[in-house]
Design brief:
Layout (H helix, E strand, L loop, with lengths): L21 H6 L25 E7 L1 H10 L16 H14 L4 E3 L10 E7 L3 H4 L3 H15 L8 E4 L13
Helix pairs in contact: 2-3
Length: 174
């Protein structure tokens, strides 16, 4: 790997965590991340098309870049060789998936209520039937992700609405 300026590869900072205002949280209360998936968002015969909701870790992009660096996966833009390419985050996610032996994906949370910039998805309300593990195995995957990314044990997956969710305050209740 080519030598880079030390300040470029400094990952000692944390991404600034976004905290929505109280007014925003009140307006978008039905789209805030939650620890339990409400029944109205489960995919069923009677409810075949609920909004997309991801069960995911809040992710700091700096954590993914640090992980990519640790595993020699960092990629840089060809025209801007000092700028880390977002491809590095995807490479880190693929590598992390191999490490924990469970397929993870990157997605973007619903912006108005997100407490992070990206999310590491374990599954969503459409794939949970196929991808959801038994509690014991799911806890193992959660612990491995926490360890690999240097997360505190309090950083756990939550249900996040997808970035492309079209709901807005004033829309009919679901």
């Amino acid at each position: 790997m080519p030598t880079r300026p030390s300040d470029l590869l400094s990952f000692d900072h944390e991404d600034t965590q976004y905290t929505p205002s109280q007014e925003t949280l009140k307006l978008y209360a039905s789209r805030c991340p939650t620890t339990q998936l409400p029944d109205r968002y489960r995919v069923t015969v009677a409810n075949p098309n609920p909004p997309l909701v991801h069960f995911a870790f809040p992710a700091a992009i700096s954590k993914l870049y640090k992980y990519a660096y640790k595993h020699n996966l960092l990629k840089f833009f060809a025209n801007f060789p000092k700028m880390i390419s977002p491809v590095s985050a995807f490479a880190a996610t693929r590598h992390l998936s191999d490490e924990v032996q469970y397929e993870l994906e990157i997605a973007w949370p619903f912006g108005q209520t997100a407490d992070c910039g990206v999310i590491l998805v374990l599954y969503n309300n459409y794939t949970m039937e196929e991808k959801m593990l038994i509690n014991e195995d799911q806890e193992d995957v959660i612990e491995m992700v926490q360890e690999e990314l240097g997360y505190d044990k309090s950083v756990r997956p939550k249900w996040y609405f997808d970035f492309h969710d079209e709901w807005r305050p004033g829309d009919e209740a679901e």
